[in-house]
Design a protein that fits this description.
This is 6-phosphogluconate dehydrogenase, decarboxylating. Pathway: Carbohydrate degradation; pentose phosphate pathway; D-ribulose 5-phosphate from D-glucose 6-phosphate (oxidative stage): step 3/3. Belongs to the 6-phosphogluconate dehydrogenase family. Its EC number is 1.1.1.44. Catalyzes the oxidative decarboxylation of 6-phosphogluconate to ribulose 5-phosphate and CO(2), with concomitant reduction of NADP to NADPH. The protein has 19 helices and ten strands. By secondary structure, it is an alpha/beta fold. It has three domains: about 170 residues, NAD(P)-binding Rossmann-like Domain (Rossmann fold, 3-Layer(aba) Sandwich); about 250 residues, N-(1-d-carboxylethyl)-l-norvaline Dehydrogenase, domain 2 (Orthogonal Bundle); about 35 residues, 6-Phosphogluconate Dehydrogenase, domain 3 (Single alpha-helices involved in coiled-coils or other helix-helix interfaces). The strands form two sheets. An eight-stranded mixed beta sheet has the order 3-2-1-4-5-6-7-10, sandwiched between helices. The chain has a two-stranded antiparallel ribbon with strand order 8-9. A hairpin with a 2-residue loop joins strand 8 and strand 9. The longest helix is centred in the middle third of the chain and has 30 residues. The N and C termini lie far apart (about 85 Å). It binds 2'-monophosphoadenosine-5'-diphosphate (ATR). 2'-monophosphoadenosine-5'-diphosphate binds next to helix 1 and helix 4.
């Protein structure tokens, strides 16, 4: 081999293989390949003769490292967790000062922070990078959230810009901040994705069980909505999936698919981190919980048999326009929660997350891509960073116009016994947040009674304890 490879991909599962092809194709890179099951590297090269000149399969870690030009850029795309630590440990003695190791897997950002700290004084420059968009994204253009030091990003950024998705020509990649910032933002992206999908599924449930729409009719509604304010990849694929017919039975595909949702855990991570940061993420929580309940199908069948309440009340005052408005409003609220989590994390970890930029790079390549994100970018690009998107004039207008519909939809669904956990969580958060006199005064009184936890008063400064009557 005369010229050395400009980048290496270690881990050639679905994501790694697609990323390697993207790097060779759109990226214009010469890509060294290595995989634990070594034959996969040669197989990938053989299967893609069009990139024969730019794919360099290797059959040992040593040869992989040797195949790379310095400073080496190595993208790890192995299973998240122990495999990443193992591969870093194996690479470490083979690498030179300034070599860059990028973990592009779905890492827990806490692990990324730990790894960044462990590698701080080593020759390796470590980058934790969130890659969103699934296998198609990896191959044709993902949304990329890079962490690590800014000077390392200056080196890898130009390559990432070439392989990233483009939104009106702008690459969907940016530097999020040091250590775990990239993986954290990816985690919150997934949490928002859970909430967005659950809300869409709840609205589909109302169409199906409350309004009696057949899948094909619901498909038409989503397709129509995709031309309006809700336009997004998730609304688009809702229309596509609902319209699809099962070739075996002639029934709509969605009607033969088991109603149990899978999950890989990133939604749960988002919720856990929000809780640790003491930020409300109720729409995300509701979405994770709904997936959990969905997976308990046998238990639902047994409970359903006990509580068969007969015919439910008919929905009144809920038409498709109200559903559209309700979904849009709840979506704004869910995204507001997602961005508050990131704002809080940014402060806590000293990241200075580029919030407007995050909305910008989510406009293409990733699952929650939508035009709607433009408005979020505008909100964070304004001179003053908003405390909460719900206070930004553009969203205030939309929420004021849509909250009545959300209220009606949630109320009618509840009366009809149709579960709407994420939509109602959005509404409850909204009502809680705009309630100037809450009810935690009673909680504080109770805490003071049973634990002398003290309370503050409205009419004077200080911390107080009251001698409550004995109970
Ligand atoms: P995918 O990318 O297909 O979604 P994944 O499970 O996240 O799947 O990652 C699979 C990749 O991680 C494979 O390249 C796998 O190597 P093998 O082909 O040898 O199975 C790699 N991988 C998993 N555990 C690993 C480990 N402990 N060390 C090195 N590579 C590992």
């Amino acid at each position: 081999m005369t010229t050395k490879a400009s980048v290496g991909v270690l881990g050639l599962g679905t994501m790694g293989a697609n990323l390697a092809l993207n790097l060779a194709d759109q990226g214009g890179q010469t890509v060294a390949l290595f995989n634990r099951t070594t034959i996969k590297a040669q197989e990938l090269a053989d299967a893609n003769p069009a990139f024969a000149k730019s794919l360099v399969p290797t059959d040992s870690l040593e040869r992989f490292v040797e195949a790379l030009a310095t400073p080496r850029i190595i993208i790890l795309m192995v299973q998240a967790g122990a495999a990443v630590d193992e591969q870093i440990a194996a690479l470490k003695p083979l690498l030179d000062k300034g070599d860059i190791v990028i973990d592009a897997g779905n890492a827990d950002f806490n692990d990324t922070r730990r790894r960044a700290a462990q590698l701080k004084d080593s020759p390796i420059r470590f980058v934790g990078m969130g890659v969103s968009g699934g296998e198609l994204g990896a191959r044709h253009g993902p949304s990329i959230m890079a962490g690590g030091d800014a000077d390392v990003y200056a080196i890898i950024g130009p390559i990432l810009e070439r392989i990233a998705a483009k939104y009106q020509g702008a690459p969907c990649v940016a530097h999020m901040g040091p250590d775990g910032a990239g993986h954290f933002v990816k985690t919150i992206h997934n949490g928002i994705e859970y909430a967005d999908m659950e809300m869409i599924a709840e609205v589909y449930g109302i169409m199906r069980d409350g309004l009696g729409l057949k899948a094909a009719d619901a498909a038409k509604v989503f397709t129509r909505w995709n031309a309006g304010d809700l336009a997004s990849y998730l609304i688009e694929i809702s229309g596509v999936t609902l319209a699809e017919i099962d070739p075996d039975t002639g029934k709509p595909m969605v009607d033969v698919i088991v109603d149990e949702a899978g999950q890989k855990g990133t939604g749960r991570w988002a919720v856990i981190e929000a809780q640790k940061l003491a930020v409300s993420a109720t729409t995300l929580e509701a979405a994770v919980s709904a997936r959990i309940i969905s997976a308990h199908r046998a238990e639902r069948a047994r409970t359903g048999a006990i509580y068969d309440l007969g015919a439910t009340e008919k929905l009144t005052g809920v038409d498709l326009d109200a559903l559209e408005k309700a979904l849009e409003t709840a979506k704004i609220i869910a995204y507001a929660q997602g961005f508050v989590i990131m704002q809080e994390a940014s402060k806590t970890f000293g990241w200075n997350l580029p919030l407007g930029k995050i909305a910008e790079i989510w406009r293409a390549g990733c699952i929650i891509r939508s035009r709607f994100l433009d408005a979020i970018t505008r909100a964070f690009d304004a001179s003053e960073t908003p405390e909460n998107l719900l206070q930004v004039p553009e969203f205030v207008k939309r929420v004021k116009a849509g909250q009545g519909a959300l209220r009606r939809v949630v109320a009618q669904a509840v009366l009809a016994g149709i579960p709407v956990p994420a939509l109602s969580a959005a509404l409850a958060y909204f009502d809680d947040l705009r309630r100037r006199r809450g009810t935690a005064n009673l909680i504080q009184a109770q805490r003071d009674l049973f634990g002398a936890h003290t309370f503050r008063r409205l009419d004077r400064d200080g911390v107080f304890h009251h001698e409550w009557p004995p109970v």
